Structure formats: C-alpha cells, structure tokens
Amino acid sequence: MRNLCMKVSYEGTNYNGFQTQTDGRTVQDHLEKAIKMLTGDEVKIIASGRTDAGVHAYGQVFNFQSLSAIPVERWAMALNTRLPADIVVREAIEVPELFHSRRSAKRKTYRYTVNANQFIDVFTRHTQLHHHGRLDIAAMQRAIKHFIGTHDFTSFASRNSAKTCHVRTLFDAYIEVDDSMCRSASRDQGVIHTYVTGSGFLQHMVRIMMGTLLEVGEGKKSPDDIPVILAALDRTQAGPTAEGKGLTLWDVDYSDHMKKTL
C-alpha cells in the first residue's frame, strides 16, 4: 500500500468548503471522484485541515492510501484532467506510511486579502474583500503584533466552536501592502495582504481577527485594545467575522524533509 501526498490549490467560491458534507458540493468530493475515475478505487482523503464555504487554498495538503502503480510524477496531471478548472493538484509525492496530513503538520499559514482601492477589481472580486472606506493601515500593523505568541483565543473563536481548549500559538503575523494598482492622485490604498502563521487555528479564528483588525483600521478600536480583547475570553468583545472570500489557506509546513519535497 502506498501513501500518496499531494498539494492542491482551489478557488472556494463555488464550494461549501473542503470537507465532505451530506448536503453540499465540496472540494473533497471532487478530489475523491477524480481519484476513483483514475484508479477505480474509492478512497477517503485526509486533509491538513478544513476550509469553510467560499474560502480558498493555495497550498492545501492531503494524503491517501492507494494500491495504484501509477508513477508519482504522473498523478497531478492525470487528476487535473478529471477535476473542475477551479481545483488544481500542483504536486504529488510518496510519503512514509505514518505520515498524516493533519497530525504531521507543524504550522499553517493563512492569508487574508483586502482590496483597499476605491473601486472593486472585477478580476479578483471572488478572492478579495473590497473595503470602501479609508483604513489606518499603520494602526492595523501595530495591532496585529499583539496576536503573536501563545494566547487563549476564545474571543476570536466561533461561538459554535467544539474545541475544549482555545489556546493556540501564533509564530508570526504581519501585513504587506501591494500598491502597484493604485491610481495616481486617488484615494486608493492598495491591496492589503495579512499573513498569519500558527500551530493551529480555531473555527473562524482568522476571519474574526481580520474583522477586528478592520475595526482598528476604521478607528473603531485601538491597537492596544487587542490584548484587552484576548484577556476578556468573550467573543462579543472582538470584531465581526470577515467574509470568507478574502481568506486563503496559504501554506502548510511539515518537517524539514517534507518541506524540501512538497
């Protein structure tokens, strides 16, 4: 039995998330269907984590067991011919038997993208949140640093969270601004990319963090409010849950060996 591991990108606009559901169209459904079409085998893939409806992935990782003799270098192309255009397998490798896409992950990085230009970009409207008003980006950059470290993120977890422990560690969190599409003599502020890397994330955690950072940018909250909100352990103290369409699972990091090969 082979343990095959793959990296997949997808635009989540047309899907009810990654993980199979009884009443929804999911990315997992299409991947498993494509594998069955290719090999004749029914498999259940294991992903590094689930993404919600409308959320995207650049570097989602999944693995599954297979008896197929198809050379590993042919898997990506073979699956892509059987997948919708908005799901693309980018890499495939064979991994040790005990490798598990979720449990073996060391850290994950999410990116949230806000278009802070005056007008929406019609070409990226499904993958960026357009913010109509001006934002204090410098204040947002100061605020995001308060998330780095080990904290109880109860204030930034969905009220429906089933986790018994909300303590998580964020290794890095920062904001980059791409102003290449800004018009001269306009109120355009560019495209704001927020990157967050951690050992794990709670349901809606990044989106709630982003909704809170946007309130900081709007002047509704101060950067120094973030430690107070964290300490409150109260979801009502944080900002709203930002729309899913701006969120992308950017990267999943494994051991040094895996990082070199996938």
UniProtKB/TrEMBL annotation:
Reactions that this protein is recorded to catalyse: uridine(38/39/40) in tRNA = pseudouridine(38/39/40) in tRNA
Taxonomic source organism: Paenibacillus glacialis
InterPro entries with a match to the protein in the record: PsdUridine_synth_cat_dom_sf, PsdUridine_synth_TruA, PsdUridine_synth_TruA_a/b_dom, PsdUridine_synth_TruA_C, TruA/RsuA/RluB/E/F_N
Lineage: Bacteria, Bacillati, Bacillota, Bacilli, Bacillales
Protein name: tRNA pseudouridine synthase A
GO MF term set: RNA binding; tRNA pseudouridine(38-40) synthase activity
Its EC number(s): 5.4.99.12
GO biological process: tRNA pseudouridine synthesis
Domain Pseudouridine synthase I TruA alpha/beta: 8-102, 143-255
Protein role: Formation of pseudouridine at positions 38, 39 and 40 in the anticodon stem and loop of transfer RNAs.
Binding site for substrate: 110
